[in-house]
Design goal:
single chain, mainly beta, Neuraminidase, five-stranded antiparallel sheet, four-stranded antiparallel sheet, 1 helix, 31 strands, 2% helix
Length: 444
């Protein structure tokens, strides 16, 4: 059977302990979203493919390219900033791709987590409501891709937003950070019982630390987005305890943590252009190559070839340095690729620069880039509503047009989660949720 990504498949994506395939990209003066789906996060956390490139199965009963919310061959508005220097952006209107609506969240929320569970459902937890002053939520719900609907599950122990929700080897989900009060409290979600329970406490309070599930089953928790902390600790699921380890090389805030093929973790951004590696064998951090652009509140994930993609444009940093909003037109490093064999970053070209987009690794090796906006000096200056999507190919360093989203989902408040059937679920900010179902096949 041929799916919408052009592959023949009989199996589905398997997400292991790290299972972090989705990243919510972009820079913001606030925190980025979640490390939850194995992205989205954690989608943002230890982004790893978990071994071989997974085979993507087709979505059962998938709608045609002309379905609701899809581009259906219609006119697509091209972003005016897609002609900046660097590799040429290819706009291919002959292969219109499709976004379609699905069920609605029970509670419309933003800054929540979205974690793919082993049974294929998606855990949506916490965030804030959409009514000012946007109170943090304890509520959680489950998305069932078979029925396309959301249902209630038990509430979290504590209200949280901009937290991480990381899959453990046991199938449980570790929820860390983001709490308004009692930030040391950590909890576990058990999909079998559908309940959250308190587990060991952090050694110190943290808000949106970088979180990575390691190869040995433990979880690295490093830094603090609120204070720029240098400390780090490990969570042991067997004992449900946290242990402080040697500190990072530099204090960081709003940085990323990406699990590499050799078991080390790339810590990038949050302290200008610098990066460092965590070695689980020695439990120590060492400096590695630097990025071309200073990044924070960005996202990162591991690609099938073992490189790490660190994505998000530092518009605010550059504007603060130059006091010139036109600088954004000169930025070509919307993302950078880290090569573990050389310890160096190289710019990734092709796509238009966006602030606050999501970027989801797809089964064919490409990255789906959606949403976003551009803010300079507290003002939105993008003339595009950023509902247009692009697909980035790391091999060719090029982008192709990937259709138009059903709804505009502004900022970093929504999530993108790769499902087992190869589609991508978008939740948050507005209802209904929506699915990216890929390009139409030759026989559609």
């Amino acid at each position: 059977m041929t799916n919408r990504m052009g592959k023949t498949s009989e199996s589905i994506v398997t997400l292991g302990g790290v299972g972090l395939l989705t990243l919510a990209c972009g820079l913001t003066e606030e925190e980025h979203g979640v490390t939850s789906t194995g992205g989205g996060q954690s989608a943002v956390g230890a982004g790893g493919s978990g071994g071989e490139t997974p085979v993507v199965a087709p979505m059962a009963g998938g709608p045609s390219a002309a379905g609701a919310g899809g581009s259906g061959g219609g006119t697509i508005v091209v972003d005016p900033y897609d002609t900046i220097g660097g590799p040429t952006v290819v706009t291919d209107f002959s292969h219109a791709e499709n976004f379609v609506p699905t069920g609605s969240l029970i509670v419309v929320r933003r800054f929540h987590s979205a974690t793919l569970l082993r049974d294929g459902r998606v855990l949506i937890a916490g965030g804030t409501d959409m009514v000012w002053p946007r109170e943090p939520l304890t509520s959680a719900e489950l998305y069932d891709p078979q029925s396309g609907t959301f249902s209630e599950t038990s509430s979290m122990v504590q209200a949280r937003y901009r937290h991480s929700a990381t899959m453990l080897e046991s199938g449980k989900v570790l929820v860390v950070g983001g709490a308004e009060e009692e930030r040391q409290i950590v909890e576990l979600y058990d999909p079998q019982s559908g309940t959250f329970t308190e587990t060991g406490s952090l050694t110190q309070p943290r808000f949106r630390p970088a979180v990575a599930a390691l190869s040995d089953g433990t979880v690295l928790v490093a830094g603090d987005a609120a204070t720029g902390d240098v400390t780090a600790e490990l969570y042991d699921p067997a004992t449900e305890t946290f242990t402080q380890i040697e500190p990072m090389v530099e204090s960081r805030e709003a940085h990323s943590a990406t699990l590499l093929p050799d078991g080390k973790v790339l810590i990038a951004g949050g302290a200008g252009t610098s990066a460092e590696l965590y070695d689980p064998a020695t439990r120590t951090f060492t400096a590695t190559g630097s990025m071309a652009e200073g990044r924070d509140w960005h996202a990162a994930t591991r690609l099938p070839d073992g490189t790490a993609c660190v994505a998000g444009i530092s518009f605010l940093l550059r504007a603060q340095e130059t006091h010139d909003s036109s600088e954004m037109r000169d930025l070509t490093t919307w993302a950078e690729l880290y090569d573990p064999t050389t310890g160096q970053f190289t710019p990734a070209g092709g796509c238009d620069p966006r602030e606050h987009p999501t970027a989801t690794w797809l089964g064919d090796g490409s990255v789906l880039v959606t949403g976003g906006e551009i803010w300079i000096g507290g003002e939105m200056i993008a003339v595009s509503p950023w509902v247009e999507a692009w697909r980035f190919d790391p091999a060719t360093q090029g982008c192709v047009e990937a259709g138009t989203m059903v709804s505009q989902r502004d900022g970093d408040g929504y999530t993108a989660t790769l499902l087992e059937n190869g589609t991508v679920l978008f939740t948050g900010v507005v209802n209904p949720a929506e699915l990216y179902v890929g390009p139409p096949t030759a026989d559609e």
